[in-house]
Here is the input.
Amino acid sequence: MKAVLRSGFLALAITAVAVPADGGEFEDGVAAYKAGEYGIALDFWRPLAKQGHVWAQFNLGIMFESGHGVYENHPEAANWYRKAAEQGYAKAQLKLGIFYALGQGVLEDIVSALMWIDVAASQGSLEAQEARELLVKLMTPDQIAEAQRMAREWLERHRR
Here is the structure.
């Protein structure tokens, strides 16, 4: 199952850092990252991420997943993706769902995987919709129903 998911998810890989026009230290970190100065990017983004900056959190997840400027550390990547996902960032929700599906940095949990992917898909993420199609083929109807219930509850708790 993991091999099928891994190959399918590779086509959906989100490895680019978030680059919204934010200004200031965040954009300085983006410029450093693009220049290959990963340590400098980390110095800009880590304090912002700790303060709750969603894009900095996501970008730290990318760095820890890829090993850019830090040792590759999937549990740490999952931690940063979770922080951004909890704030409603669809790309982070998709990444966290993929991590759960593959047991990458977290315990493998196909139901939690679909829950996070469904939450991302509910925001219109085409990548999440494609990931969902891959995942549900490997799940029982009960697993799908549980994941959908969890996604609905999460969305209700986080309505803005």
About this structure: Residues 54 and 84 are 5 Å apart (CA to CA). The chain is about 70% helix and 0% strand.
